[in-house]
């Protein structure tokens, strides 16, 4: 391997590794990540982290070491010259061939987090890339697959990302077994401009139940619980004072095949320029209405804030800022955002943070 950037993951989790791999691929810089997931009770590579590493290795034909379960040091060389690979990137810097790949994460490891790690590759693709993954589509500690499909991807397509996600089968904890496909096309990303949210436009609700729960109408009851909570909080009353406080722009209930019983709800909040999402997973012994109300309470909190994106997107968009430049206003500086900033600066990406009364603003300048 050529000389690598050495990165310390002792105070970070899996997102640090995923972002570091993406940065390595788009810049061409080899990396050594030490103390992988060092702040977790079970440090080192788990199934889903190993799946990301192996997929990146296959797609890039990279040289890798430390690619085994439990490994706390990973070396990754994407195998190309890093000259001209500074960030944000210019159009015309494509260097990565696409193709078709299949990945079995094992157990209920998150398909969503794998796909999230792959999205930055669109900026340097020469030809389309598709990855079909088997694992967990709706599991703890990661966004449900519908969040990716209906919140994040539509937002990023506005800024030039060519991407789609299709779900063949849902995978809930503990069996997993879900199957989904991410399709990426060569993309010319435009600088992000998410400093203001604009006027409230409405909400969209996406509720999913495993087929084993269909007789209990779990998907419908989750939405009913969410709407009751939103209505009691007066969400939407300002745009229709004389009518029903909340009239969804979209209501979608899905009954899906799955190896495990489970459910999930995602609420998308639309503003003129803003886009946000909140979610909740079903829990054994907890009424479906309460699961919906839990997600709705997070939606109410977001509506009362000023940022155009939710706190989970804030962290996830840090990588896109590195690729395309631009500025975003976020609800707060979370540990994930702070860690992502440090990682970007380790790749010589200057990240500016400004604070005012409406929340922090994060900016990365485009090339002159």
Automatic annotation (TrEMBL):
Residues 234-246 have a biased composition (Low complexity). It catalyses: a 3'-end 3'-phospho-ribonucleotide-RNA + ATP = a 3'-end 2',3'-cyclophospho-ribonucleotide-RNA + AMP + diphosphate. Residues 64-87, 234-260 are annotated as: Disordered. Keywords: ATP-binding, Cytoplasm, Ligase, Nucleotide-binding. Residues 12-347 form the RNA 3'-terminal phosphate cyclase domain. Catalyzes the conversion of 3'-phosphate to a 2',3'-cyclic phosphodiester at the end of RNA. The mechanism of action of the enzyme occurs in 3 steps: (A) adenylation of the enzyme by ATP; (B) transfer of adenylate to an RNA-N3'P to produce RNA-N3'PP5'A; (C) and attack of the adjacent 2'-hydroxyl on the 3'-phosphorus in the diester linkage to produce the cyclic end product. The biological role of this enzyme is unknown but it is likely to function in some aspects of cellular RNA processing. Belongs to the RNA 3'-terminal cyclase family. Type 1 subfamily. This is RNA 3'-terminal phosphate cyclase. It comes from Natrialba swarupiae. The lineage of its organism: Archaea, Methanobacteriati, Methanobacteriota, Stenosarchaea group, Halobacteria.
């Amino acid at each position: 391997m050529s000389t690598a950037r050495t990165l310390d993951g002792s105070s970070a989790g899996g997102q640090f590794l995923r972002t570091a791999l993406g940065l390595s691929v788009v810049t061409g810089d080899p990396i050594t990540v030490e103390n992988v997931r060092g702040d977790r009770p079970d440090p080192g590579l788990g199934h889903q982290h190993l799946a990301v590493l192996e997929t990146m290795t296959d797609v890039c034909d990279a040289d890798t070491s430390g690619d085994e379960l439990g490994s706390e040091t990973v070396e990754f060389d994407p195998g190309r010259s890093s000259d001209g690979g500074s960030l944000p990137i210019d159009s015309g810097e494509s260097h990565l061939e696409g193709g078709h790949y299949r990945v079995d994460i094992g157990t209920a490891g998150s398909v969503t987090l794998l796909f999230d790690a792959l999205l930055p590759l669109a900026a340097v693709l020469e030809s389309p890339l598709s990855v079909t993954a088997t694992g967990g589509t709706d599991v703890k500690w990661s966004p449900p697959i519908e969040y990716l499909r209906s919140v994040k991807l539509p937002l990023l397509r506005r800024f030039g990302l060519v991407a789609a996600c299709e779900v063949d089968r849902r995978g809930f904890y503990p069996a997993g077994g879900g199957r989904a496909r991410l399709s990426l096309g060569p993309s010319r990303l435009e600088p992000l401009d998410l400093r203001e949210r604009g006027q409230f436009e409405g909400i969209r609700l996406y509720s999913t139940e495993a087929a084993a729960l269909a007789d209990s109408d779990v998907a419908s009851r989750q939405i009913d619980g969410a709407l009751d909570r939103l209505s009691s909080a007066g969400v939407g009353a300002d745009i229709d004072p004389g009518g029903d406080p909340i009239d969804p722009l979209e209501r979608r209930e899905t009954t899906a095949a799955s190896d495990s019983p489970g459910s999930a709800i995602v609420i998308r909040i639309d503003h003129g320029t803003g886009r946000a999402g909140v979610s909740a997973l079903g829990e054994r012994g907890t009424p479906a209405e309460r699961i919906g109300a839990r997600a709705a309470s997070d939606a109410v909190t977001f509506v009362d804030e000023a940022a155009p994106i939710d706190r989970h997107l804030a962290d996830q968009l840090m990588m896109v800022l590195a690729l395309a430049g631009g500025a975003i206003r976020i609800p707060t500086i979370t540990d994930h955002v702070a860690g992502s900033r440090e990682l970007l600066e380790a790749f010589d990406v200057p990240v500016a943070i400004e604070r005012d009364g409406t929340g922090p603003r994060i900016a990365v300048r485009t090339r002159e």
